[in-house]
Amino acid sequence: MNRDYTQRLIVQEVAPRDGLQIEPQWVDTADKIALIDALSTCGFTRIEAGSFVSPKAIPALRDGDDVFRGIGRRPGVIYVALIPNAKGAERALAAHADELNLVMSASQMHNRANMRMSCEASLAGFGDIVRLVKGSRASLNATVATAFGCPFEGRIDEDRVVSIVDAYREMGIAGITLADTTGMANPRQVARLVERVLGRLPADALTLHFHNTRGLGLANVLAAYDAGARRFDAALGGLGGCPFAPGASGNICTEDLVNLCDEMGIPTGIDLQKLIALSRTLPALVGHDVPGQLAKAGRNCDVHPVPEYVKSI
Amino acid sequence: MNRDYTQRLIVQEVAPRDGLQIEPQWVDTADKIALIDALSTCGFTRIEAGSFVSPKAIPALRDGDDVFRGIGRRPGVIYVALIPNAKGAERALAAHADELNLVMSASQMHNRANMRMSCEASLAGFGDIVRLVKGSRASLNATVATAFGCPFEGRIDEDRVVSIVDAYREMGIAGITLADTTGMANPRQVARLVERVLGRLPADALTLHFHNTRGLGLANVLAAYDAGARRFDAALGGLGGCPFAPGASGNICTEDLVNLCDEMGIPTGIDLQKLIALSRTLPALVGHDVPGQLAKAGRNCDVHPVPEYVKSI
């Protein structure tokens, strides 16, 4: 089978947001800013840098305003903010976020658990945000969470996911993310859904967000890439995770993804060596080991010294 | 893209051999036998149950003879033994192993480090083993280790791998395993090499052995399956590992692989629920957490109870 691996794969780094949001140990605002500034030098064109949520809902990200005001804005990098509601959108615009990412789950149960409202209430709120953002320089993205499965409801009807994508686009939201919030997607399902959605919007408007909860994150990336998707979320060190699967992996790991691309010849524009060095600072920052494997194993080209005894054989 | 997922994927369980061989904590012979006997009830048709190596070289597997004599032989299950040399082959035949698996690295450096001899000396030894096994009821398999990369030499010439496959087959060894010993393979390379090798032998003679050292194990399985490979090694819990990448993952995890197949509709004949229950006994057996993710995350269909507060939204 001959496949085309020449098309650039765009990695949106999400460790500062989806990675840090469940960390129990507080990460200082200055450390968050230093992490984002270091990420800005690695070749990313998109970084989800923080969130404008209620400090009660996600205390780990309560300093979103200070983070967005404190980071150095590297030309060519789009700094994205996650937004739960109109109040968050106002704060994000005031802090000059380049892009606002809204989120609603395909599953009613999960949206109620996560956003504490029905999907209908979420969509109505999105209308307010679209009106608020119109005329600003910020762009809009909206995420369909649990697009590949729900930890409460199980399977999610693909027609429902597609109809939410249509609803987002009809509201004037340009960017769409399909999120496998708790790592339930499989490559066959991913290929099918990506093909359907890419019949409705251009590849540069679609982001795939995979978690590695069941070890399939990178296989899902390849299936989506083969089906035409070009933009993927990933978190340095594989930070993040799912409160419903303690001990299991979180987001797909950025350096593991970039290594995959480097080895297959898929261009990303990202400096893997810098990324690994940065990832190795994470355990000290968050106070525990992280799931990413490249930082432990090294790149393929980082060969090991031959043991002494071999020389006499 | 329409791919065929109806062909059975055969999983050869290797935890009792490749999984346990690097464990520092001694696992009692009775516990090894109990593990293999439990695996025999899960639907596997092939289990690599132990090794007949020098007790000095691999002390963790010094009880291969007792293990093979102690296990219950379930009809339909082939019990495989890893063999380093003719002496090991004699022991394996005496203990009634169904299949003997020989191993040599494609990389000279790795073969010297691992087998303490040159590739030429390894191949000469294989000739002795082939003569020894001829006339017995045991079948033969030979592994090309470091077939996708070497931790000392880096890239491995594909022509060299193919020529070793040819040499094995010319010696009368029916089964061939291509092993990614330290997790350096990528899906593009896997597809290419599998296609080449399947031009020389039937699919039921080829096994792929992947490690998840850099997070690509299951993506490599899918690439190999898409290219026509049907048989794969995997270890319960993802046991095993690479002494050159401490902290990184070992063999691909059996239950994670079976979950992938179940979700994609690829038949395996293996009972995932039994496998997960068995995997959850491993940390107590080996004295540490294991890398497999299904045992932590559960299957997709193991849905979680909806939080109380959701009911009032």
What does this structure look like?
- The structure is a homodimer of 313-residue chains.
- The first copy, chain A, is α/β, with parallel strands linked by helices and 313 residues long.
- Chain A has a single domain, classed as Aldolase class I (TIM Barrel), CATH 3.20.20.
- Chain A contains 13 helices and 8 strands.
- Chain A has an 8-stranded parallel beta barrel, surrounded by 8 helices.
- In chain A, strand 2, helix 3 (64-70) and strand 3 (78-83) form a beta-alpha-beta unit.
- The longest helix of chain A has 15 residues, at 119-133.
- Chain A starts with 9 loop residues before the first strand and ends in a 16-residue tail after the last helix.
- The model of chain A has no long low-confidence stretch (mean pLDDT 95).
- The interface between A and B is large, with 67 and 67 residues.
Protein traits:
homodimer, 313 residues, alpha/beta, TIM Barrel, 8-stranded parallel β-barrel, 13 helices, 14% strand, globular
Residues in helix, % of chain A: 25-40%
Trace the largest sheet of chain A across and list its strands: 1-2-3-4-5-6-7-8
CATH class category name of chain A: Alpha Beta
**Which chains have the largest interface?**
A-B, 67 and 67 residues
The CATH architecture of chain A is: Alpha-Beta Barrel
> Helix count of chain A, per DSSP?
13
Distance between the termini of chain A: 42 Å
The CATH homologous superfamily of chain A is named Aldolase class I
Specify the overall morphology of chain A: globular
Organism (chains A, B): Caballeronia telluris
GO biological process, one term (chains A, B): ketone body biosynthetic process
Pfam families (chains A, B): HMGL-like (PF00682)
Family (chains A, B): Belongs to the HMG-CoA lyase family.
